Amino acid sequence: MSYIDYAVADKIATITLNRPEAANAQNAALLDELDAAWVRAGDDPEVAVIVLRAEGKHFSAGHDLRGGGPVPDKITLELIVANESRRYLEYSLRWRNIPKPSIAAVQGRCISGGLLLCWPCDLIIAAEDAQFSDPVVLMGIGGVEYHGHTWELGPRKAKEILFTGRPVSAHEAEQVGMVNKVVPRDQLDTEARAWAEQIAKMPPFGLRQAKRAVNQTLDVQGFYAAIQSVFDIHQTGHGNALSVSGWPVLARLDDMKANIR
């Protein structure tokens, strides 16, 4: 089964999350297929711009906590770290650093792991109904694996959404600079395409240098080191969950996700 659609036209690669029946929740197969699509677009000399979008009502309900693959007889912190370092950290950093401009088009809910998909993109266009949240503190964990919160929202707003678990609306995200533009839901794909077409007309080398300049400035300020170190903090939450109540810790998230799909 394929969870990702991939198409190229007019120098634009469109990568589509296509698991709408599960609100585009991320199992291992979806993430592996998504990473392959990003690499394919990055390696294709005919692609100048990458657009990430999603089918259905919601962009992504985050990690699929209830299945989608075989479960080991015994889950250890070692297994969790191995899986998450690959799929939740390395993938997101790779997508961030692909030397081509990328645009995320986000609608509906974008929860926890969904942030790992849109935050690595260079630009984010959100539908008016978009909501961004990271309620994993309910699981006893300090934030999702790719901890871009402080960079995307600022320190106090980041603490607010983590401490309360409340969603950030599209317009609020635009006000703090996490989102570039908010549009009506029925204009989301059209607007993302228009931006991509405009950017695709720019000199590729100039675009690459501009992206590299901004990303390296963030890295000099500590972005890359912070992402790596906070990932380790995230894993202490898993270690605590394993020692207290086993894995996965799902009960407190049931109510939150009940009305998403």
From TrEMBL:
GO terms for molecular function: catalytic activity. This is Putative enoyl-CoA hydratase EchA13. InterPro entries: ClpP/crotonase-like_dom_sf, Enoyl-CoA_hydra/iso. It comes from the Bacteria. Pfam families: ECH_1 (PF00378). SUPFAM superfamilies: ClpP/crotonase. Gene3D superfamilies: 2-enoyl-CoA Hydratase, Chain A, domain 1 (3.90.226.10). It comes from Nocardia aurantia. GO terms for biological process: fatty acid beta-oxidation.
